[in-house]
Amino acid sequence: MTRPSPRRLLHVVAIALVKDDPPRLFVARRRADKRHGGLWELPGGQVERGESEVEALRREIREELTIDVQLGERLGEATVSTERLDIRMAVHACRQWAGAIRLVDHDATRWLSADELESVSWAPADLPHLPALRVMLQSSQPSAR
Fold it and tell me: Which helix (H) or strand (E) holds 106?
């Protein structure tokens, strides 16, 4: 009997870019030639050996969107299992950045309200974060007077 090979754990980070008035979340669609092509995600990537989450996220966002970010609160972490590996993804909020967003690994973007989060097909690792993203967007809305 053959032993199953050990599962690989991939530690990734993603950014929840938010613009206010009204609150909207930036999402990007992965290019068709990438893994999970055509699915929407929060931009980010893998934490390399010796890197902190913050260092990895700043590097990844510079590479993927060509902007420099000021990170806010850490919104949470979740692990999703795929056929070959476990993906542990942490999400950090960001409301301030410098530069103009240019796409490198994506082919489309949208700015979604809390009510629009289910309007796109999400990459698997992003799905567990939708409740926290919804709360963040709803708490950013001005109170009704």
Answer: strand 106-112
